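Hi,

I'm pasting everything inline rather than attaching a file, because the server keeps stripping attachments. The sequence lines come first, and each chain or strand is labelled.
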Amino acid sequence: MADGPEGGQALLFLTDDQLRKGIEAMFFAYRGFTADPDRILADLAYGRAHHRAIHFIGRSPGTTVNNLLSILGVTKQSLNRVLRTLIEDGLVISEVGKTDKRERNLYLTEQGRALEQRLSDAQRDRMRAAYRAAGPEAVAGFRQVLEAMMDEDLHRHYRAMKDAKV
Amino acid sequence: MADGPEGGQALLFLTDDQLRKGIEAMFFAYRGFTADPDRILADLAYGRAHHRAIHFIGRSPGTTVNNLLSILGVTKQSLNRVLRTLIEDGLVISEVGKTDKRERNLYLTEQGRALEQRLSDAQRDRMRAAYRAAGPEAVAGFRQVLEAMMDEDLHRHYRAMKDAKV
DNA sequence: AATAATACGTCAGTGTTGTTGACATTCCAA
DNA sequence: TTGGAATGTCAACAACACTGACGTATTATT
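And the predicted assembly:
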């Protein structure tokens, strides 16, 4: 590569080598990101798919199956398998929609909230440590790059939830 | 950001809400991160496991199966299946180790390098767009947070490759 | 009222990727 | 040289995603 002498200075962070490092950082970091919840889930015979469902149902109580599908980006058959076990195990309840009876509104049960808490506590702990180690400015940059990396339709979902109150 | 009032100013980025946003950003961004290579791989009847193997073999030609295992964090049997198809398809060659004949040194063939290039071009394009949109300071922060999020053993691998020359 | 479209669930079949178990080969050290 | 450790391979199985097809209930359209 050897970006020319001067001139390109400001663009040094766009070299192939810098990009490769970013790609590998993303790969290794994501492993860490999921490691702690994965350990908890393994004991419960659940997988990441269950975690994701629980997370976003907890995040948007009353969400519909369709909405969840577009957030998670899986097929309804795949999601259904996960939801069925969560409902059978009493972590999630599915209510017929009020205004539109074709829809199902999904909620966490008390038990579901407990697991959600346990999982997100584990994940937050690591995230907190990373944030603390890197500092506020780094965190701002972190979020900026991630947002710029999202597909547009997912970015919409992200923005919608980002600004929602807890 | 519009950080709330005063007081905890410096620690506001460590609130649960900020951490949750980071977690969701990570989730959505990783989907974007893998989307482009995934599309290419789908046409070739390969998956992400193949991509990862090709990436790290291309990155460290002559690497052994064992080394690859510790980087990828899967069982050797799982990796072996992937390697076998790549070898059969002529993308990778496996040479008996010179000093230790138990080992296998892995290399990309010309064809393998071509696919590696195609995949990483696609992934780099998105990464480059994100970097460009976010700017150099944001990128530095991005990398800092990711590194702090890695498990220690993976961080070692990352550092080892980070500083290696192309 | 009849028809089309939407939301959800399910059954069947397939593919990738992870796992464990068993085994062959090679190296090394007692 | 013999036994154990390390390296890698083969086989069988489980988890989970996908496609495709279909059924049912409800809502929207004509």
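The first helix of chain A runs from residue 16 to 43.

If the labels don't parse on your end, tell me and I'll reformat.
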